[in-house]
Amino acid sequence: MRSNFSVTEGAIAEKNEFLGSMGHELRNPLANIIAQAETLQEGVYGPLASAQKKAVTAIQDSAQQLLQLITDVVDLGRIEAGASPLSQTPCRVSEMCAGSMAAVAGLGKSRSIQIVTEVQPPDLAVLADARRLQQIISELLSAAALSMHTGGQVRLRIIHDGGGLQLQTLGGAGQPPSEPAHLLNRLRKVKPIGLALLQQLVQLHGGTFAVSEAAGQEVGMTIRLPLSLSLAAVPVQEQGLPESSVSSEVPPPASSRQPTILIADDQPALIAVTRNYLESVGFQVITARDGSEAIQQACTMQPDLILMDVRMPVVDGLNAIRQIRASTDPKTRDIAIVSLSGHASASDKEKCLAAGATAYLNKPFGVRELDRIIADHIRTDGG
Length: 383
Hints:
This protein has helices at 2-41, 50-80, 93-110, 130-146, 179-190, 192-204, 268-280, 291-301, 317-325, 330-333, 346-355, 367-377; strands spanning 89-92, 114-120, 125-128, 153-160, 165-171, 208-213, 219-225, 260-264, 284-288, 305-309, 336-341, 359-362. It is of the alpha/beta class. The protein has three domains: 2-80; 89-225, Histidine kinase-like ATPase, C-terminal domain (Heat Shock Protein 90, 2-Layer Sandwich); 250-377, Response regulator (Rossmann fold), CATH 3.40.50.2300. The strands form three sheets. The protein has a five-stranded mixed beta sheet with strand order 2-4-5-7-6. Helix 1 (2-41) packs antiparallel against helix 2 and helix 4 (130-146) crosses helix 6. The longest helix has 40 residues, at 2-41. The protein is globular, with a radius of gyration of 23 Å. The relative contact order is 0.11.
């Protein structure tokens, strides 16, 4: 009996590893597309004309849609493989809702649909997997927006009715009364992966998902999740500064010495665009094509920061980090190392941090995220 269980565990781990690797490989070229578009927007290669800016914005929007699609496919595979356990912590529902609203804002704008949300009470908190709950709200809002004609309104109301969390959307713009009966079939054609992910996420929580017709030909979707109220206080997350008040460039180094950043990655295109951006804002950049070269460069050049891809030939990123951390030279041993990975999972982040990474950055990443990492971890005091 135990051996069968071990075989099952092994199969789940193997499929989870395959899905993570697949996601990483798909995100690598996408990372280059997003980075190239952002550097064009930033004027690294010179100013853009108005028409060129619109074209680059369209590229960025499409790339973000493709990124979400890749994330959904990998998540769906992990759930179906049983490799996506829930991790419950106290979370504030309004914060999950706000994150979801931001995620579907583009869809609502493109279809001229107003999306309104209401959480009652406003400080409602539950024990839940925060990331998965936000995914459910996002996919529910997306399905609701796609189920109706343009120019309408989607209203989402979230309450806790004692038996669990209830999420209900209402929306309509003149659909025929027979629409609810065919709604799921139509959504499977319009957004099959998103709907499948929503249904799997609800099932993973042991919940239910139903579609009905309300008064005035409004189409309603209702999700019930057996989540308990959180009795622990949930701190309100601090809101970041408005985008307009954040500097568009990394602050210049505080000392006269030009800080050095090592980029270790086996993707030449991503190295090139990252290097161009970093050099444009005043950093010296060195590169490595595999983990072995990264170790050598770290020991001889002792850069201020290392951007280390996880999957590389010869020596992978995790082993390279371990060997750098094992150096007898304290200057080498203490270099800030940021792991770059397309796995985009909590377990992958834990592996990187356990290996000795200072921080973890998902691929694809934008220049703003790169700026934040540099500001947080680079040494600018001359040593």
